[in-house]
Amino acid sequence: MADKEATVYIVDMGTSMGEKSNARKESDLDWAMTYVWEKITSTIATDRKTAQLGVIGLRTDRTENELDSEDSFQNISVLQEISQLLLPGLKELRQKVKVSDTTDGDAISAIVIAIQMITKHCKKLKYKRKIVLVTDGRGSMDADDISQITEKIKSDEMELVVIGVDFDDPDYGFKEEDKDPEKAINEATLRALVEDCDGIFGTMQQAIEELGTPRLKTTRPVPSYKGQLTLGDPGQFDSALCIDVERYPRVMVRRPLAASQYVQRSDLSLGHFSTQSSATIMPDVDGAEPGSAQPDGSSLASVRNARTYQVIDEEAPGGKRDVSRDDLAKGYEYGRTAVHISESDLNVTKLETQPGLEIIGFIPWSTFERYMTMSVSCVVIAQKTNSKAIMALSSLIHALFELESYAVARLVTKADKGPLITLLAPSIEVDYECLLDVQLPYAEDVRSYKFPPLDRVITVSGKEIREHRNLPSDALSTAMSDYVDGMDLSDLGKDDEGNPAEYMNMNDTYSPVLHRIDQAVRWRAVHPTGPVPPPYDILTRYSNPPEELVAGAKKKLEKLIAAANVKKVPPKVQSRKRNRNEIKPLSGLDVGALLGNSKSKKIKITRENPIPDFKQALDTADSLEATRDAVRQLSTIIEGQIRDSFGDIAYGRAVEELGVMRSEMIDLEEPEAYNEFVRSLKGKLLGEELGGDRRDMWYEIRKNKLGLIEKKSSDESRVDEEEAKAFLSSRS
Amino acid sequence: MAEENKWKPPGEEEEEEEDEVDEAAYKSARDAVLFIIEISPSMLTAPPPTDAKKRDRDTPTLAALKCAYALMQQRIISNPNDMMGVLLYGTDETKFQEEAEARGGLAYPNCYLFTDLDIPAAGDVKALKDLVEDEEESEKLFVPSTEPVSMANVLFCANQIFTTKAPNFTSRRLFIVTDNDDPHAKDKALKSSAAVRAKDLYDLGVIIELFPISKPDHEFDRSRFYDDIIYNASPTDPEAPAPMSGVVAPSSTSDGISLLTSLLSSINSKAVAKRALFSSVPFEIGPGFKISVKGYIIFKRQEPKSSCYVWLDGEKPQIATGVTTQMADDTARTIEKVEIKKAYKFGGEQITFTPEEVSSLRHFGDPGIRIIGFKPLSMLPIWANIRPSTFIYPSEDDYVGSTRVFSALQQKLLKDQKIGIAWFVARKNATPVIAAVLPGAETLDENGAQIIPPGMWLTPLPFADDIRQNPETNLIRAPEGLIDRMREVVQQLQLPKAMYDPRKYPNPALQWHYRILQAMALEEDLPEKPEDKTIPRYKQIDKRAGPYVIDWGHELHKEHEEWRKDNETATSFPAKRSAPPGKDDIPDRSKKAKTATPDGGPTDAEMKHAYMKQEHKKMTVPQLKAWLQGKNMSVGGKKADLVERVEEFFEQRR
């Protein structure tokens, strides 16, 4: 568990903060609050009761603090006592932070109040104590008793952070021109204070810039296995090797914040809601109906999933009937057979296993294919308090490393968990040694898909060819080789000392969606209206090759493009007629001729074989009328099948036939022929004209997206997207 | 209640499990396989005995049925939603679907539908098993008809089975097993009508796979009949198998390897319908230079299907299907999907966005694989992995010439041991990932059959957010002498062929699960001992490496003693965690060694002592947890639960 935290933010709200300095478009206060809101919302986002914060307004119009009777503590207001801040509190706070009409108020005094708040709140308990002062340094300050403050801050282990608007920072490289002399003195005073307290002193510009670098969350390592690493069976053989080890995650995917589902509360009027559909949900402030006010003030109700169970019962209407969950027993499916297993036997299908990490054998690095890894990775270290085990594991790590080998092991993390096969790889760093572990596939985990070779072409007769349009020419291979070498990332980046290093190291890449959603939620919490700003630059930086690299490899790329001679396939080239003519069995036999397809003969579409008949009828159709006739024939069959269907038994066939008709009409550019039919079919289905209640069939059509052919799919269509959508969703 | 969680309706995890979504779409693409096996005098004749000591001299028919039986069992595990059927033709008896029979149709004479096309039921498995294992059973059925069978009729029969039983399946395949390469040698009309019926099947989207069997005195010749029946991968069907799958070497009844083995291997290679995970995604090798590729899932953890609810009050047990309705929590009113809004919890309340905003937040560009640059393979650490890699292979669909460019890149990367680094968006609004593009060479088995196809692999890499810090520990580097001893151990125990071959290791838990289910479903006796190939070969390890391990053990003891002398006083453990000296002296090779528990938890002796005096209840939660963890027992729950677990432990020991 993370430590308890208590942070007090002191925000300077004096008149001068209302100015727009240094050609910025927003006031200094708004600018500075960008930083403060980010920090505060990050804390709220943790959803931790122990991450608490308070806010003090400096140079406020009013005076509200514990020492407000004393002169030196005037114009300082506690806006928020130290506590876990929630969304309503944040909204209140937003109302309170605004530029005042005063220039009075002493920043040092505000720090004293902050110290007092923290001391009172935290008592002697274990807390991470922190004070953050944000100011433009343009108020008057009395620095007389500053040494006392320093002492208190240091003895209570508080961290003092001062971020100044347009403060000079030679390290960062910022200097304000024509600085007000009083501000310069204040800056110096604050800097000295911070340095004495070992705190952080910085300029706002840098602080805001750094907000663009996402913060990484550290997670306390939790072992996923504690036990022995063995070679051989210690129960049977004295020669077995055992080392006490612990296994911790090395890579674990952090998921973006998950959205939950809500619906509008039905007891609130629609009008009230719609004005803020995209904003945070405000409490019903005017309280018009106190009786119906929700305790959490939200106008959203969460969505609950209710699950009911059905079994097939031919006598029930619709062929199915509901059964109560209580009447159901647990079981498994074996094919389509239900295998019932009584509650007491539920573990019978579980393989009994004992926990352990057992080495099966060793393999050289060279025979292992890197793409075989199946999972996130872990580290295996020796038991932390066991020096002998640490030494023992070290010898294994080094032996594997020297032999350039991996161990393959069987891992059972807990009793009766399924065994996993893992690869154990040695990892030796300057100050750290461990085995890295990543899971390997089982026989069932590998699908046997065959693909033709890429370095040769094998013809139907079994001959191997090395020159073919699918194989690269020497020119192409050379151009590719030059290009790949030209796009090398291995020393394009810079390490901490500025030496060339790997570009796009994984430690520099941040999960785009994770941080984007995080950013947006926090932004929206503070700014209920208005668009979300664009993503941080770092989230998209690695979506394109670095410009300097591209520029350097430009010539090579041009050569490669020329040698490759790749042609984009125009979208409309796949004319139906052309493709259909190419369809022949391996022998090249003209089956069409066997069918006796003379142009005059009309093919009758049979109910037994509708799809092939329909396709073949279209092949021979030489007129629009013939095409339409084929559609009519198939339409009649589809309607007939639905009408005669017992329950939903024939729906699958009807759906397939509709699908074929739809795609063929798109290919033939006759969308209207299909649209006409599906319109009439919808009417008949919903009008119960095809043997009673056929709403389920209409549902199938919607589900399979077999609605009207729209313009997007066929240029000939007169149906726009809107109409197509309405057709599928409307019930008339 | 872990079991209950499985019943969480999928919708709730939608956002989180976003990666799995495409897998779900993938599964909805279903496959139906219909075996059609010829029954004829030659198909019922066992091959002549050969010199090779092969015990199984199955008739071609029996071998084919054994393959079907094996495939059925395998598909229940690997493709539980896919269908399978078995049709025998050339039989004296005739049987078709019951409904059709009721209508009085004997439309397909000499066709015997042994297993109707469906998801196999336990009964189907049993019937097939009996047919394969019980000679009496098979003798009744294996009677060849005296009349010649019309192939057109057989194919139309298959057509009807697919049409009625497997509408809308993305993949429908007909596996023909026969040794007769020219069924209508003398009747041209019948031959033509068979070709016509084959065209029907093609138009229906059914793919015919031929498994030809050569007779001892006659090589199977496809050109006589089957080349008119079988179509090459269709130019319009994007999911069609690559051309090479059209070629299956005829299985022979006379050569060294048994017919069953060779037939099984050719059928296995077609067992799974090839389905693309994504089609024709642009692969941008450089700015403005694109080719098209398709993605396939080749590695995927196969899990047992989760438990379900069974209704027992009917005539026979029935699986109850769950239907989820969503309702508003306040009024229990059923709600429509369009009403649902997405909101994020923040500071105790919800922050909402419009649907357009939500999708724009997730949008980081159009689908595609964009190369950012290249790195040496050595810069890709082994731990940089989050899930199985996706296989990519070129496609000429959108860019003509994709294959040669892809091939040039793959060969260059293979040759120089390099990898590409790519920005990868798999679908519209899919979460972008940074992936390593690894070249993969084709690997073949001893018979020259492909095991791993040639192509490239997209390995998604972790972001900085996903990389955990190493746990703190102390470094004690092993002395050279000790490493030397360990090297000798490692050298003794290489895996066969010095490689990890997944095919050698079936998942024991998965196999056991289905083995038990099968026994229960077929009402057989439960097997007693599972076969587990992952268990190390202890005897061999002892024999080969035993003496070296013992040497290493002595060396370790010696070196550690020396190390202790030098470091006696130095607390070399991370602060707060130092254990009292002397406690860490644990012998390394006996099961009894586990006396001390890590992290300052009580030792077994201490705990036992406390338990005897009933003082274990006074221990702190961290102490109890540390001890339980050392026993690999659960550390969840309240203190009372922990105490109870400690008690259970000692009670069982008594």
How many separate structural domains of chain A?
A: 3
Tell me the radius of gyration of chain A: 36 Å
Strand order, sheet with most strands of chain B: 7-8-15-21-18-17-14
**Cα shape of chain A:** extended
Biggest sheet overview of chain A: 7 strands, mixed, barrel
Relevant CATH superfamily of the largest domain in chain B: von Willebrand factor, type A domain
Q: In the residues of chain B, how many domains can be counted? A: 5
Q: What structural class should be given to the helix and strand makeup of chain B?
A: alpha/beta
User: If classified by CATH, what would the architecture of the largest domain in chain B be?
Assistant: 3-Layer(aba) Sandwich
Using the coordinates shown, work out and report the CATH topology of the largest domain in chain A: Rossmann fold
First-last Cα distance of chain A = 58 Å
Write down how many β-strands of chain A occur, each being a DSSP E stretch of 2 or more residues: 23
* Biggest contact: A-B, 262 and 280 residues
Give the proportion of residues in helices of chain B: 25-40%
Taking the sheet with the most strands of chain B, its summary is:
7 strands, mixed, barrel
Q: How many alpha or pi helices of chain A?
A: 21
Instruction: Give the termini separation of chain B.
Output: 30 Å
> What's the mean pLDDT score of chain B?
81
| Highest CATH level, the class of the largest domain in chain B | Alpha Beta
Provide a compact summary of the structure.
Helices cover 33% and strands 19% of the residues of chain A. Chain A is of the alpha+beta class and 732 residues long.
Helix-strand blueprint:
The complex is a heterodimer of chains A (732) and B (654).
Chain A: E1 5-12, H1 28-45, E2 51-58, E3 76-83, H2 87-96, H3 107-122, E4 128-135, H4 146-155, E5 158-164, H5 181-196, E6 200-203, H6 204-211, E7 225-231, E8 241-249, E9 260-264, H7 270-274, E10 300-312, E11 320-323, E12 328-334, E13 337-340, E14 356-364, E15 377-382, H8 387-402, E16 405-412, E17 420-428, E18 433-439, E19 457-458, E20 464-465, H9 474-486, E21 493-494, E22 500-501, H10 512-526, H11 537-540, H12 547-552, H13 554-564, E23 567-568, H14 576-582, H15 591-594, H16 610-620, H17 624-644, H18 651-667, H19 671-686, H20 695-703, H21 721-729
Chain B: H1 2-5, H2 18-28, E1 31-38, H3 60-78, E2 83-89, H4 98-102, E3 111-118, H5 122-133, H6 135-141, H7 151-165, E4 171-178, H8 188-204, E5 206-214, E6 251-252, H9 259-268, E7 276-286, E8 289-296, E9 308-311, E10 318-319, E11 321-328, E12 341-346, E13 349-352, H10 355-362, E14 368-376, E15 390-395, E16 399-400, H11 402-416, E17 418-425, E18 433-440, E19 443-444, E20 450-452, E21 455-460, H12 480-492, H13 508-521, H14 538-567, H15 604-612, H16 621-630, H17 639-653
Helix pairs in contact in B: 3-5, 3-9, 5-6, 7-8, 12-14, 16-17
